[in-house]
Design goal:
With 207 residues, the protein is mainly α. It is 73% helix and 0% strand.
Length: 207
C-alpha cells in the first residue's frame, strides 16, 4: 500500500524522474499498472493537441479551480483509513480540462470569422470548391489524427462527466455539450460541400 501511495504522488507531481522510479512497481501491481497506462495515454495525446494562444493565464486558472474541487472535500473530512480508489481523482478531471481548453482555445482562434455572437453558430458559406482532391486528402488525414486524439481524452473524461457532482464539472459538461452541437452542425455543412477549407478549419477549432 505504501508503494501505491508513492506511485500516486509521483503521477500527481508529473515529475519524470519520480514516475520513472515507480514504474517497476506498476509492473507488479495491476491497479497501478492501469493508472500508469491512462497517464501515458494522456501524456501521448496532449502534445498533439497543444496550441498557442494569447491568454497564458487561462490554464493556471483552470488548474487552480481543479485543485480546489479535488482537494477541498478531503481537507474538510477527518483523516481515516480508506481503500485506495481504482482511479486517481485528478486523472479524469485532467482529461476533462484538456478537452475543454483545446475546444475553447480552438473556437477563440477562429472566432473573428464567426462573428462575436456566433462562437457556437455557423454562417452560411460559399459552395464553390476551394480544394482539389489531393489537398483534401491531406486535410482529412490531419483532421482524422486530431479527432483520434480528442477521442482518447473523451474516453477518460466521459465517466466523470456523466457523474458530475461539482459546479466546475457541471460547467465543463454544459460547455462541451455546446461544442458537440457546433461540431455536428459543421459536419452537416461539410457533407454539403466537402471542398470548403474554411469550414474544415472551423470543425477542427470546435473539436
Amino acid at each position: 500500500m505504501a508503494a501505491c501511495r508513492r506511485f500516486d504522488r509521483a503521477l500527481e507531481s508529473s515529475d519524470a524522474e519520480a514516475i520513472a522510479e515507480t514504474r517497476p512497481h506498476a509492473q507488479t501491481c495491476a491497479r497501478c499498472a492501469e493508472r500508469l497506462r491512462a497517464f501515458d495515454e494522456i501524456s501521448a495525446a496532449a502534445p498533439e493537441l497543444r496550441k498557442s494562444w494569447d491568454s497564458p493565464e487561462l490554464w493556471p486558472k483552470i488548474r487552480e479551480s481543479l485543485a480546489r474541487e479535488t482537494f477541498a472535500p478531503a481537507a474538510s473530512s477527518p483523516a481515516a483509513p480508506r481503500p485506495v480508489p481504482a482511479w486517481p481523482a485528478w486523472l479524469p478531471i485532467a482529461a476533462i480540462a484538456a478537452l475543454f481548453v483545446v475546444s475553447f482555445v480552438g473556437l477563440q482562434v477562429f472566432r473573428p470569422s464567426l462573428g462575436d455572437r456566433q462562437i457556437f453558430g455557423v454562417r452560411s458559406l460559399p459552395k464553390d470548391p476551394l480544394l482539389n482532391d489531393a489537398a483534401l486528402k491531406d486535410v482529412e488525414r490531419s483532421e482524422t489524427d486530431y479527432m483520434r486524439s480528442i477521442d482518447k481524452l473523451s474516453k477518460l473524461a466521459q465517466p466523470r462527466l456523466e457523474a458530475a457532482d461539482t459546479p466546475l464539472l457541471v460547467s465543463y459538461r454544459e460547455k462541451l455539450q455546446l461544442l458537440d452541437g457546433a461540431i455536428a452542425e459543421l459536419s452537416g455543412q461539410i457533407e454539403q460541400n466537402r471542398y470548403n477549407t474554411h469550414l474544415r478549419r472551423q470543425l477542427g477549432a470546435a473539436s
